[in-house]
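Could you please consider the sequence and fold following this short note?
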Amino acid sequence: MKNIEVVKSSEVEVKPFVLSDFTYHEETRNSEKSISKKALKRLAKKAGLTHTDDQIDFAKKIIAVYLEQR
């Protein structure tokens, strides 16, 4: 059984509900507009994927279009 503590209303701290406190991750994800070729190459290397410069160029373009439409 859980213990319940009764407190006076003067002992309770009241803060306004701020929606941005709960949507911080959404805002940061939407604020990113592009990705560099260097970052794509690092990701590919980390994932163990082989790639050419043409593939990196294509990936950069397709990611830019995707981020733009979100």
Q: What stands out?
A: The longest helix spans residues 53-69. The mean pLDDT is 85. Residues 9-69 form one domain.
